[in-house]
Amino acid sequence: MGKLSIEDLRRIKEREMARMSLREGDHRAKITVHMGTCGIASGARKILEAFLEAVQASGTTEVLITQSGCAGLCNREPMATVEIRGEAPVKYVDLDPDKARRIFQEHVMGGKVVEDYALGRGSETTAG
After folding, report:
1. How far apart are CA 11 and CA 36, in angstroms?
2. What CATH number is attached to the domain comprising 27?
């Protein structure tokens, strides 16, 4: 690899700052990629990267990308949860990067749950 110029460093900084801004702020939708040890071993990093790339390519600033630990279903990893403001969360399982991109286009951007990959809808907590 050759020497990096100041301009190269500026472009790298701008690209990474834009990617980090996808993880902050008040947004219409939130995608949580489950990144426990089991998720990472199953390929969750590629899922996170696919979602980040899809958001960046779309130009939207209304989608928050975040990560969490294990969701407790290790045999269904990699997994992600999509939350659209005002709707029940949807947990997606057995993901790969192509499935993540489809979920982003159809559910996050289009508002239609991708039933093929959805495990369930709604909160995982119980009312006391």
Report:
1. 32
2. 3.40.30.10
